[in-house]
């Protein structure tokens, strides 16, 4: 049986994968919640990724990139440095737009899943044959589900990082493919993932001008 946290994460992930993803700045401007990116101590490139909306057109979550754009080009895996922030609105339990079901509330597990699946999307084992890649993807997706559903488990540690200057607790895990963070603020659930940039040196803040990020 699915736990509530997994159901909440799954609801978010389905929306993230849907056709309503919006890569332009418009989607960010329509959100009813603040976006979070790396704070002013980061001076590198910033770029837009995508937002995702529910069936009724409400912006639910989105991602912002920092550094190099992630690539599945295996020759670049050891040299590209990036960090992606994931902002997810706090959503209570509610009826679906068509009235046929109920959407679970979003949670820290939800944003942990979004961040974990984001890291998975830019990972590709160099030595794997094409015929095995789908099996590998399904296996890693299942692992990401389990990890997001058990934030108190051994797969995670605690890491405190500044958010708008305030020390904030995050759930943190790392693997050979990169790292994932998941936490929350008073207004949103906040996640991040990356590779080549140390998570321990990062800070987050509300994005004051989304146009500082470029496609």
In a nutshell, what does this entry contain?
Residues 1-21, 55-75 are annotated as: Disordered. The protein contains four helices and eleven strands; from the N terminus they run ααββββββααβββββ.
SSE map:
Layout: H1 4-16, H2 25-29, E1 36-38, E2 46-53, E3 59-67, E4 82-89, E5 94-95, E6 102-103, H3 108-121, H4 130-148, E7 157-163, E8 166-175, E9 178-184, E10 188-195, E11 204-206
Antiparallel strand pairs: 1-11, 2-3, 3-4, 4-10, 5-6, 7-8, 8-9, 9-10
Shape: globular
Quaternary class: single chain
Given the structure, what is the number of helices? Answer: 4
Order of helices and strands: HHEEEEEEHHEEEEE
Mean pLDDT, nearest integer? Answer: 80
Q: Specify the helix fraction band.
A: 10-25%
What are its keywords?
single chain, 215 residues, alpha+beta, seven-stranded antiparallel sheet, two-stranded antiparallel sheet, 31% strand, globular, disordered N terminus
């Amino acid at each position: 049986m699915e736990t509530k946290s997994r159901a909440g994460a799954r609801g978010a992930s389905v929306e993230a994968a849907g056709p309503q993803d919006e890569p332009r700045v418009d989607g960010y401007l329509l959100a009813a919640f603040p976006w979070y990116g790396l704070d002013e101590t980061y001076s590198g490139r910033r770029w837009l990724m995508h937002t995702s909306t529910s069936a009724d057109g409400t912006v639910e979550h989105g991602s912002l990139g920092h550094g190099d754009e992630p690539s599945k080009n295996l020759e670049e895996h050891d040299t590209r440095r990036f960090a992606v922030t994931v902002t997810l609105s706090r959503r209570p339990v509610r009826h679906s737009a068509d009235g046929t079901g109920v959407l679970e509330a979003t949670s820290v597990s939800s944003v942990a899943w979004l961040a974990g699946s984001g890291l998975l999307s830019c990972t590709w084992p160099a030595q794997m044959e094409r015929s095995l890649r789908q099996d590998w993807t399904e296996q890693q997706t299942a692992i990401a589900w389990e990890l997001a559903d058990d934030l108190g488990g051994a797969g995670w540690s605690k890491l405190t990082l500044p958010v708008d200057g305030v020390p904030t607790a995050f759930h943190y895990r790392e693997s050979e493919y990169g790292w994932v963070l998941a936490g929350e603020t008073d207004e949103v659930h906040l996640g991040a993932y990356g590779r080549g940039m140390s998570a321990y040196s990062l800070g987050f803040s509300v994005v004051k001008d989304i146009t500082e990020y470029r496609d």
